[in-house]
Design goal:
By secondary structure, the chain is of the alpha+beta class. The chain starts with a helix and ends with a strand. It has a 3-stranded antiparallel β-sheet.
């Protein structure tokens, strides 16, 4: 193994926490491109989550964050398959980052499929009001795009991670799932604010 590849593996491992063999695989598949290797690892994480969809995340922690002025706070319940992962400091760090994201970005729902049907239908109606003169296929694409943009604002898993504009929250969770090799999921969260 050449020295340059070894250095890149070290960097990728440090940044993603993925196993060394997976880092090497990602770099080889992506011709040594670090950014594309990160994306490759993220996709592996998504694949892992897909395989583990039916797994039971029966362990976990509740993590909180309260802003320094005491006016905004958040609690998040983060689940894992094993107590070994739930007690890991990296898992706790992820839970804290999620609580911070919730306090900062104020998501209303966990994901698009958790939005109540009546709210979703109302948004679809609202997003279609000014495009009635467009052909139906075009209207559908516009509505879909508007719904995705709205979801990225109000759904935690679709929000951009406030510390990295290239990463959605679901991608951040996938990175940790890949690191631990097991299912990780946000079960529920709440945000409180004195001003609301």
């Amino acid at each position: 193994m050449d020295k340059e590849l070894l250095e890149k593996i070290k960097i990728l491992r440090k940044e993603t926490g993925a196993p060394i063999a997976k880092c090497q695989e990602a770099l080889e598949k992506e011709n040594g491109d670090l950014e594309r290797a990160k994306i490759y690892l993220r996709k592996i994480g998504e694949g892992l989550l897909e395989k583990k969809k039916e797994a039971i995340a029966g362990q976990g922690i509740i993590e909180g964050y309260v802003h320094f002025n005491g006016r905004v706070g958040a609690l998040v319940e983060l689940r894992s398959e094993t107590d070994f992962v739930a007690q890991n400091p990296e898992f706790k760090k992820l839970a804290h980052e999620l609580a911070l994201q919730i306090a900062t970005m104020n998501p209303l729902y966990l994901s698009l499929d958790k939005i109540p049907a009546e709210v979703f239908e109302e948004k679809k109606r609202e997003f279609s009001e000014d495009i009635q003169d467009k052909p139906e296929k075009v209207r559908e694409e516009i509505i879909k795009g508007r719904l995705e943009k709205w979801a990225s604002e109000v759904c935690l898993l679709d929000q951009i991670y406030f510390k990295d504009e290239n990463l959605k929250i679901k991608d951040l969770i996938n990175e940790y799932a890949n690191k631990f090799g097991e299912k990780i999921e946000v079960r529920r969260f709440v945000r409180l604010s004195i001003d609301e």
